[in-house]
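Memo to structure team: turn this sequence into structure tokens by end of day. - J.P.
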Amino acid sequence: MNEKPNIFKDKKILIYGLGKTGISAFNFLKKDNDISLFDDVSNLNLNKILRKKLKSITQIQKKQFDIIILSPGIDINKCKLKKFLKTNQKKIYTDLDIFFSNFKNLCITITGTNGKSTTCQLLYEVFKKQGLDVKLTGNIGYPILSTKNIKQKTIFIIEASSYQLEYSKLFNSKFAAILNIAQDHLERHKNLNNYISAKFKIIKNQKKNYLAFINKYDSYSNNNIKKNNYKSKIIYVNTKLNKKFLKNFKNEYLLSTSNIQNLSFVIEISKKFKIKRSTLFDVVKRFKGLKYRQQIIFKNKNLTIINDSKSTSYSSSIETLKRRKNIYWLLGGIPKKGDKFKLSKFYCKNIKGFIFGKNYKKFSLDLKNKIQYKKYSNLKNALNDLLKEINKDNSVEKNILFSPAAASFDSFKNFENRGFYFNKLIRKNFNVR
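Reply from structure team:
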């Protein structure tokens, strides 16, 4: 425990949103507080203890709460309790705030539009190989309040989304990195300025001697820094690493522009912790990446199949579209508000699009006069037709790219579920484990 006053004790608390984050907050706070629970979804599969704490909208409106803990997935402008939340906005906190009030561990917090999970995972593996006591938490899938065996020397590597940072009030991190900024989540943040402000909250809250790592070539990030007077020391990361240097790692996965960027941040942050060069090289050489992120799931002499289900915007798909030739591109889902397909004609001529799902009109408008494309009701039908076309293609190099460039919630629980389903379809047609 630390010197900071812990405001999350002996309070009447409402936890809104009962996914992993909300349940971890309940388990952490239940001993010392009067907890009430609410979720917009009424038929959740909850245990008896959680069900007893569930309240109706009427019950919540009648009760006075000291604190409201909001899960990242709750949009204050679209949820069932939006009027209640707006009236009580000063009482809203996050799981990051709870953590900050209870622990004083060193934190390295990574945010940005693309590459957060890969950067966090790689940094975690480097630190672990060095022998440091390190925990990987946050938006990567491990709620920070579910972390066990926390010691004074434990270092936290935290993946933070704009959703988490938007509502946080107390949390700050001695080390913070913003990898990049592209138009994303505008359906939630309304405009790009709000989105950038949410991301930069992690730097705005830093103190004088803290370190902020910024992409040297990211225009949105650099413009924001010029406009604001931040207290922390800004470290500009050179994300254009020397090709000769990169060859030392002998890792094809890390040779894409986006992953070179991720590696650049890992190298710069590692310097501050005096990580051995041999340790860094060994981990990077062996790093296989994360599932469903530009993941090669099949490869033979003439065909490569890539599962990039994590792609939820055009900006996250374009990197692979630039690097490959003769691409059969599977895309579809719920398009991001304000998202634009920015790819030169030089690359577009190598791409055939296979759009799946009910939102095909939006994708058709975006891709019209840019690439050839066809439309399908679902992913299975799109893939089946794609495979028929590929069998007629005598090209030496063919690439099937599953990079949806959209959210998954129209047909899938999340991008992992979508990626797993795609792998299942591929297994039926190819010898893929």
